[in-house]
Each structure stands twice: as C-alpha cells, then as structure tokens.
Design a protein that fits this description.
The chain is an alpha/beta fold. The chain folds into two domains: about 280 residues, Vaccinia Virus protein VP39 (Rossmann fold); about 130 residues, Adenine-n6-DNA-methyltransferase TaqI, Chain A, domain 2. About 35% of the residues lie in helices and about 20% in strands. It is built from 16 helices and 17 strands. The strands form four sheets. It has a seven-stranded mixed beta sheet, sandwiched between helices. A five-stranded mixed beta sheet has the order 10-17-14-15-12. The chain is elongated. About 40% of the residues are buried. The structure holds S-adenosylmethionine (SAM). S-adenosylmethionine binds next to helix 5 and strand 2.
Length: about 425
C-alpha cells in the first residue's frame, strides 16, 4: 500500500502542475500530455507492487459491451480498485470545454465502489486527470473536481446492491481469492472463489437489458467444480460471448476470460463456455472415440493397503514420453485397476508448460493400480499401436493449444482429455 499512496501523491502533483500552467504540457516542456497518460496508465502503479486490471485488458472489457456506452449510460464497477475499467469507460463519454462540466456529467454516469479509500481516491484522481488529458480546462480546485464524482465511493458492493441495480453497464473485475467464511449456494458450498460469488450475487440484482462485461478467472469457465455455477448463471444472460484471454498479466499467474452479454431474467439461454478453438472442429473425431479415459483410483494417504497385490504406478515412477513394462512398485488395493497396454498422463500441468499432457506408455501383463495424479487412457480396441499413435499425437502443437484454451487451471480433467480432437 505504501507504493500506492506515493502513486496517489504523484497524480495530485501532476494535477497541480497542470492547473498552474497547462501550456507547460506542450511538446517543449518536461511533462507532456502523453507522459500524463502514461502515469494514468496503471503499469506504473503495478511496478510499485500493487497489481490491478491492465489498461489493455480494461479497454478490451469495455469494448466488449454489447450496447455502446452513450450519454445516458450508467456504468457501474462494484469492485473498482484503482479504476482502470472506469477510466476506460470514461473514454466513451464526451468531453466539454471545462473540467467541472465534464466531471459533473461523468459523475452522473460513472459509479465505482471499493473497500479501500485509497483505491477509491486513486480512481477519482485518474478520472479527473483523464478529463484534462482529453482537453477539458482545469477550472476548479482538485477537491472541487473530485467531489463531482459523486457515485464513486468507499463501501462493500454487496451492501450497495440498490445502487448497482440501476446499472445499464456492469463492468466487473472482482477479487479472485476464496471466501473467508463458508458460503452456501445451490451451486456450491464452502470456501468458494469470490469471483463466482460476486458475479452471482451482483447479476441477481441487475435489470433486464443491462450489459455485462466481467473479467473472471478461467477456472469458472473451464473447471468441472464450477459446472453448477455455470448452469446457475447462464440462463439469465442472453447474446453472451466468452473470450479466453490467457494470463492476467506478467506478474499474476492466473488465467482469465471475459464474459459479456445482456441480462434477461426470464431467459433460458446457454453460454458457449467453450470457444471454437477449445472445442476443435465440430463433428471431427475426438480422443474419446478411441480411448476409455479415467482418473487413477489410488489416493495414497487415504486408501488402506488391503486387497490383492498389484503393480503400482504414480507420476514419479513413470518415464516422461517413454514406455515402462517392468513396474518397480507394488501395493495392495481394493479399488479399480487397469489392464495394460494403456497410456498414463500426468494430471498436473500448466499453460506455461511445454506440453500440457505428458504421457507414458504402460506395458506388461499384470493389472496395475494407478495413483490419482494420473489419467489412464485405455485403447478401446486393446491395440498397442493405438497407444503409440496417441503418444505421437500428444506431441502435436495443436493439442497444447486445444488444452490451453479448453482448461487453463493446473489439473487436467477427464472431459478435457476426452475432447482432444483426433487429427491423423
Ligand atoms: C481485481 S481488483 C479490481 C481491479 C480494478 N478493476 C482495477 O482496475 O484496479 C478487486 C478489487 O475488489 C475490491 N473488493 C474486494 N471485495 C470488495 C467488496 N466486497 N466491495 C467492494 N470492493 C471490493 C478490492 O479492494 C480490489 O480493489
């Protein structure tokens, strides 16, 4: 937060300099309009250790609204942070000759809420400076201009639902942390990702026709544990679009997507959570057409060493991209076991790995107990050749691309693996 206060002070100083002599911002002065723009842009702030929505992403989210932002719009950002989404939204609004008249109008149309007063102050400062950079004359003191942004304030958005309900445009980049307390919904219980909770709670109060653009963690789009959340939110969103964006930014190792659409409470639409790239070409063959896909059944810390003795594999015993016929470990097990030949894929992998699905071909006659960090692919025709074909296929660049857009969280799922397009 220290770097944050400094950033706010910097923004204040720029305002004072600007007001003193706006001609000093011409090309021959030290501070030009483009330098101020750079300062408004949040990269500078992120270098101080605080990260928020990048300006490019904010711009993309604002440009994704189904309905253009015009002079009658009310754009609400319920978790506005340092204000990137509202600054991007202000760029859609007209500028008048004076900052006071511009900000009076913007103040009616831009609504932002955040728990932290220093973030709220930052949002307002950035919007004031944005009006000056766009050509409005600083005709009032800083505090008078800040006061015109009457709808940007400190608070808990979940206590401000009546304000949020008035939105014509909801721009949302909620916190992605898990809830501190146990939450109970029809779609999940326990400590749930706040992004799922905030999107759900806020979308309930929005009126029909409100345009939503939300930057959300990819796990909500692709994770199997959020399937019920997806079913809960999708009926009330029409004309929806999903755009897979990849990593949040260089410093933040979270994958995100933008969800946009129009609220329609009586609707029963579906959202295409999987984009064209994630699904592969419709009608084409998939891996599941040739293989049975299942997760290994052994949970080592939970399962008793009881039952028959089997060969036992886990990720550490398997050569990556290789074959194994003499399995060095055995264990007793009561659950499901697998008959070789089959291909075992490590479940844990991330979008930055060279290969998402790293296989080992398992051979031999003995039945095998498989640890649950592995996915087992057994050829439906029992053929070793089919397994070897699969190993080749997994090296293909398109498989990585498919898995990266299909599932960005770190655990590969049976459904993601089953849907890999089979292109030979
Ligand atoms: C991912 S950041 C938003 C980034 C923002 N779009 C920006 O441009 O800086 C999430 C923000 O939500 C705020 N927040 C978390 N819980 C909140 C709540 N209940 N009400 C309002 N704001 C909240 C945090 O303080 C944080 O600034």
């Amino acid at each position: 937060m220290e770097g944050f206060a400094e950033y706010n002070t910097k923004l204040e100083q720029v305002f004072y300099l600007w007001k003193k002599d706006s001609s000093s911002f011409s090309n021959h002065s030290n501070i030009t309009a483009s330098k101020v723009r750079e300062l408004i842009d949040i990269t500078t702030l992120r270098e101080s250790g605080v990260f928020f929505t990048s300006d490019a992403l904010a711009e993309k989210a604002i440009n994704s609204f189904n309905v253009p932002i015009d002079d009658t719009a009310l754009v609400v950002d319920p978790t506005c942070g340092s204000g990137s989404l509202l600054v991007a939204a202000s760029r859609k609004l007209s500028v008048m000759p004076l900052a006071s008249e511009t900000l009076r109008q913007w103040g009616k149309q831009l609504c932002g809420i955040d728990l932290f007063p220093e973030f709220v102050y930052c949002t307002k400062l950035r919007i004031v400076l944005e009006s000056l950079v766009r050509g409005a004359k600083a005709d009032k003191s800083l505090s008078e201009l800040l006061d015109l942004l009457i709808n940007i304030h400190t608070g808990d958005c979940l206590d401000n639902l009546s304000v949020i309900a008035k939105a014509t445009h909801l721009a949302l980049n909620p916190p992605y942390s898990n809830s501190k307390t146990t939450a109970r919904y029809s779609w999940a219980n326990g400590k749930i990702n706040n992004a799922a909770i905030y999107y759900y709670e806020l979308s309930l109060v929005l009126k029909d026709g409100c345009s939503i653009s939300a930057i959300l963690p990819d796990v909500l789009r692709s994770g199997s544990r959020f399937a019920a959340w997806r079913s809960a939110v999708e009926p009330a969103l029409t004309n929806s679009n999903v755009s897979v964006e990849g990593r949040f930014d260089k410093q933040t190792d979270i994958d995100i997507f933008i969800l946009n659409g129009l609220v329609n409470k009586k609707g029963f639409d579906k959202v295409e959570w999987q984009t064209a790239e994630t699904l592969g070409k419709a009608g084409s063959l998939k891996l599941r057409d040739f293989f049975e896909v299942a997760v290994g059944a052994v949970v080592p810390y939970r399962d008793p060493h009881e039952g028959k003795l089997y060969a036992y594999i886990h990720p550490k015993t398997l050569p990556r991209w290789g074959e194994i016929s003499k399995i060095p470990e055995s264990r007793n097990f009561l659950g499901r076991v697998f008959q070789p030949p089959f291909v075992a894929i490590r479940r844990t992998s991330g979008p930055r790995d060279k290969h998402r699905a790293v296989p080992t071909l398992v051979l031999g006659k003995r039945l095998v107990a498989v640890e649950n960090h592995l996915i087992v692919l057994t050829p439906k025709n029992g053929s070793l050749d089919k397994c070897r074909e699969l190993l080749k296929l997994l090296e293909e660049k398109y498989v990585n691309e498919f898995l990266n857009s299909r599932i960005r969280c770190r655990h590969l799922t049976v459904s993601a693996i089953s849907e890999i397009p089979w292109r030979f």
